[in-house]
Amino acid sequence: VQLQASGGGLVQPGGSLRLSCAASGSTIVTYRMAWWRQAPDKERELVAVISHIGSTYYSQSVKGRFAISRDNPKSTLYLQMDSLKPEDTAVYYCNAGSGIGRPWPPRAPYKYWGQGTQVTVSS
Question: How many whole angstroms separate alpha carbon 94 and alpha carbon 8?
Answer without folding.
Answer: 12
